[in-house]
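[Archive record]
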Amino acid sequence: MSLVGKKAPLFKAPAVLNGEEIVEQFSLEQYIGKQEVVFFFYPKDFTFVCPTEIIAFQDKLAEFEKRNVAVVGISTDTEETHLAWLSTPRDQGGIAGVTYPLVADVAKTIASNFGVLAGEYVADEEGNLAFEGTPIAYRGTFLIDKEGIVRHETINFFPLGRNIDEMIRLVDAWHHVEKFGEVCPAGWEEGKEAMKATKEGVSSYLANKS
């Protein structure tokens, strides 16, 4: 079930901050009323597609920050594994230099609540639990507004890496909607024409495009 238009699930969990500090009670609540958040799940530390995405977010971090948007990553690895990966040089498969928070969802409850866990626990007739599927997160990405409401979500299968520039475009689109009360048509980018959410607005926009 989609979370778009709903409150993002709340949680408290361990996280690594600034690539070096473990905190035990990290929460997205700290951003409510202050910043939007791009909250993204990735499958696993010390893997292959994941570091390309994590570093790509870091490379674009200044673009998010100048838009007053926080970036937070999360996987089902432990905080100690996060820290070890953050301490490993990039030429050795690590992600050294990443400064935004990485959350540890060891219990897999956060991934489950956000709808991105790639499987589920089931019980047999004797009440024994087993996991059906893969006990890690898909590549879920959520844009959460200042009120804690999810405004965008995408979920990719494991091999499909994300486009970080697309997330910046969506942030810009959301800011435009909030500021001007207009809607953003297909392929809209900052500085391009948007339109009023009326029949006349659509007709005028399409006429200008023809």
User: Anything to note?
Assistant: The longest strand covers residues 129-137.
